[in-house]
Amino acid sequence: MIFGALLALVSAFSFSVNFILVRRGFADAGATAAQGAFITVLLGVPFGLVSVLVTGQLFNFGQLAPDEYLLLAAAGIVHFGIGRYCNYRGIAAIGAPRAATIQAIAVPYSIVMAMLLLDERPTILMYAGIALILGSPALMIDRRKRPAPAGGAASATPAVEMRMVEGYTFSLLAAGAYGTSPILIRAAVEDATGVAAIGTFVAYVGASAMLMATLALPTQRHLVGTINLRYMRLFGGAGFAVFFAQLLRFFALSIADVSIVNPLMRMIGVFTLILSYLVNRRLEHITVGVVLGVLVSFAGSALLVTAAAGR
């Protein structure tokens, strides 16, 4: 259990790197959510194949039953196809820190579903850790307006339009998708060993197949032709970061309960705020409240890891 918890934390950090690169892609390269999702999901297929070869799981495909492959493909469609598009729409509309914070609703949702469908039973200590992780991102959101630059001088920080209704709506939809996919993954791989890379690969194939099918729609046929080198540099890096994060998440879910892995994944909000301050400071305004939020969230993570070690 404790190793699965540690994998979840590293996965959360890698997800945060994806958030930062995606935010830069929208602000600097002028990309759209559909372009970002298309690039990062399709890149996951070759990355997934390489991971299957490197981890030596090429000959383990027989360990999964046909219905488990369907569950993994469904998880890929829900998480990579639907969830990632909604996530990117949310980031583009309200910024990475706010989007990550809203998506914390995925934690209680997935835990309730795990209790109902997988018969998981979180402990009191785990509930305390979950509460701290859920509450910590809210402590780091600055709702004050930035002062106008003195003397009418142009600000060094570009004006980034905040579309609150769109951002909150799509972030909540992403949370629903992200809260559902761990249940599907855990149901598919909990009785198998040495198939985490296979699961990641199959999920990306399922999501990629869905995205390729959407190109048949008249409104989507132009998508491929609008992708350029500026998008590929940023979203290529984001694609690798999010694939690595997903691979670690699959490994974590194969050895640990959803009620442990998914709350720890909410460290994404903390890591995203820290990286936003360090890398995207001109796009995301972060205050000293981040210090309190980091301490509270890490306290919650420590409780979860302690609970995992004691099970």
Order of helices and strands: HHHHHHHHHHHH
The shape is: globular
Tally of helical runs? 12
Termini, distance in Å? 8 Å
How much β-strand is present in the residues?
Answer: under 5%
Number of strands: 0
Structural class: mainly alpha
On the 0-100 scale, what is the average pLDDT? Answer: 78
Rg value? 19 Å
Helical content, roughly?
over 70%
Low-confidence stretches: 145-159
How many strands, what sense, and barrel or not for the largest sheet?
none
List the helices and strands and how they pair.
Blueprint lengths: L1 H27 L4 H22 L11 H29 L1 H7 L3 H12 L6 H12 L28 H26 L6 H19 L14 H27 L2 H8 L1 H13 L9 H21 L2
Helix pairs in contact: 1-9, 1-10, 1-11, 2-3, 2-8, 2-9, 3-4, 3-7, 3-8, 4-11, 5-7, 5-10, 6-10, 6-12, 8-9, 11-12
Explain this structure.
72% of the residues lie in helices and 0% in strands. It is mainly alpha-helical and 311 residues long. Helix 5 packs parallel to helix 7 and helix 11 packs antiparallel against helix 12. It is globular. The N and C termini lie close together (8 Å).
